[in-house]
Amino acid sequence: MKNGKRITSLALISLGIGILFSGCGYAADAGPAPGETLSQSYRESQRNNVEYQMVEAFQVFDNLYYVGPGFVSVWLLETSDGLVLFDAAEEPYVEHILSGIRSFGFDPADIEYIIISHGHLDHFGGAPYIQDISGARVAAMSEDWDLIEQAATQPGRNDGPSPRIPKRDMVLMQNQTIILGEATLTIHQTPGHTPGVTSTEFYVFDNGTPHRALLIGGSGARNNAFTDALYTSRLFAAMDIDVPVMNHSWLGVSTFPRGGIFERAQTLSIRQTGDLHPFVDPVSWREWVEAGRERNAIGLEALQEEGG
């Protein structure tokens, strides 16, 4: 593992992001539709525009990098003993992820863990291919390993062949810790979107200053799982999080207040010395958690009234 910093100053990061958001990262003939935010465009009007989706990788903290396409997040955590990849997107974006990792001087062979936030194809689809070249452990909750394995028995996107899936490898548990180099990752089971949503707590550093971060593994109740989602909202409410790390930049009604990943990256690109880091936002975290709690409580009440 190469231990030297590829980019030693967040001022240099701002320069790189500034170039990205000046237009070099997107298809020249595409952009957000009228009324859309940039983040929203990746999941709505430009969802199937492969060229547009191939966002240039960028560094957000001393030890955290965005290497995914636009519609779904892939985050890379650097440690002194190897790399942790959070999610792996799906084809045709796997080589794009690998290129993004290499753009910072990292070797994908140094990925030690691929932590799957939940068992939907857009999050786990690239995992077996990246595992092939890295030998990384692929980690998910048992309930979502079940979902991943079900995907292998069903048609793929657009009724195509069933997707290739990773073999059941590392089964995560609530409050488990993973230690890699100086980093300690704490695992939380946060169900609702799926039964085995995995949210991961760790520290990021802004020019050496630590901040408690949480990779949010999934948002909102799916299939009327309001009881699970309300449990998760209460669990989140007990956490003091400085940096919410989103697994989608735009999430409809549950999008983060004051901008998603790409709006915050634009702000980071013009950050001046002394400015707050735009991804360090405990106020938005609290607002988002409370809004989710209210939605889930209302949803559960409506479901109970229907006899569900």
Short description:
This protein has 308 residues and is an alpha/beta fold. 33% of the residues lie in helices and 19% in strands.
Notes on the structure:
The protein is built from ten helices and twelve strands. It has 308 residues and is an alpha/beta fold. It has a single domain (10-305), classed as Metallo-beta-lactamase, Chain A, CATH 3.60.15.10. α1 (10-24) crosses α9. The radius of gyration is 19 Å and the shape is globular. The strands form two sheets. Strands 1-2-3-4-5-6-7 form a seven-stranded mixed sheet. Strands 8-9-10-11-12 form a five-stranded mixed sheet, with no helix packed on it.
CATH topology name, in short, is Metallo-beta-lactamase, Chain A
Could you tell me the radius of gyration in angstroms? Answer: 19 Å
Multimeric status of the protein: single chain
- Class inferred from helices and paired strands: alpha/beta
Report the portion of residues in β strands: 15-25%
How do the strands of the widest beta sheet line up side by side? Answer: 1-2-3-4-5-6-7
